Structures are given as C-alpha cells and as structure tokens.
Amino acid sequence: MHRVTRRDLENMIHVTLATMPKSTKRQVRDVLPDQLAAKPFIEKLCDLIDSSSMMVIRTESVGFGASQRPGVWGEDEPSPV
User: Fold this and answer.
1) How far apart are CA 39 and CA 6, in angstroms?
2) φ, ψ for residue 75 (rounded to 5)?
C-alpha cells in the first residue's frame, strides 16, 4: 500500500468533476455557490481529506504489463484496518 500524493488526489478529483455527466454537473452547480471555482473547491476538499492527521492510501498494482490492475484489500494486500 502507499499514500496517494496531494497532487494525484487533486488530479483524480479534477478529472472526476470534469468527466461527470452533464445532468450531474448541473445538480452540483445548483448546490454550490457560483463564485466557487473548481480549483479552490478541489483544494478545500483535499484539505479536509489529506491533512496531518488523515491521508488517502491505495493498494499496489498487481500483475504485469497490460494485465496490470489495482490490488484489492483483503485479497492482494492485508486490510489497513
């Protein structure tokens, strides 16, 4: 297992927000204030989930070459709990 870097976390959130279906984006825009831009929103979100007392971890990749896939907790790696 390894820690997801702050930059990778921000990039994953940005890509997720950018690739959401239009109907979902509309619902998010209805809830969030207009002045809230994507970058400050993503930074604030990362501040909440990636801090000195909290972090995001992921499993190591399993397999080789084209058959590589993310590992599964409890199967490929022990549970972090």
Assistant:
1) 13
2) -110, -60
